[in-house]
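Revision sheet: structure tokens.
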Amino acid sequence: MQGPDAPLIAAEGVSLALDGRTVLASIDLAVHPGEIVTLIGPNGAGKTSLVRVLLGLVRPDEGRILRRPNLKIGYVPQQVDRDPVLPLQADRFLALAGPTTRARRQAALEEVGAAHVARHPFHALSGGELQRALLARALLRDPDLLVLDEPVRGVDVGGQIALYDLIDGIRKRRGCGVLMVSHDLHLVMAATDQVVCLNTHVCCAGHPEAVTRHPEYRALFGSAAERLAVYVHHHDHAHALAGEVLPIGEAGGHPHPHP
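Predicted:
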């Protein structure tokens, strides 16, 4: 896989069974430089399994994974164990990623807006601080591809918007590709270039606006799919914390940024 138009990573006809159950069936997927691709789907749809196959942690039963030569991947896991008994500062956590310098670690934290946490106990970081520290750790690899498994997990709505904006800024500055896994339907459609809707197989894929109109997408997400259409059309409204559409200015509403 070479040439300017070649993807950074691609799955071709990937299938996987675990404990006799089909987890992935004939999956095709590609991520190009400077592109954000988001995997969505219900619990048990195979999203994390597909990521593990793409990362080379699990061998597929059928199909193949193609990667650009010397591809560097930065990975942000869905969760990380934090033991309060083990005294570990955030800067030290970043140092565990591999050979680096304090200056580089501080620069990575500054890039993600978390320079202030360098000396904070890692186990005491808030949800948003933790996700930024994990992202900084991934950036220390100077990745061509960022793989983010639920990057806004444990973060409030305002923090989720800020993190998606941050991810968008990183891909624009660095030109890297981004593959995200998300359950966060209410925001992710405005934060991605391509959506792959997964439910063991690829139900539908493409630009967010096209995916939200697809019958299989609407069948999977029901009434949520109907509410979601406004995110990729007219942004003249706001959303309450539970996701309800409100006129801008009404109490509790959070205006959503335009994609």
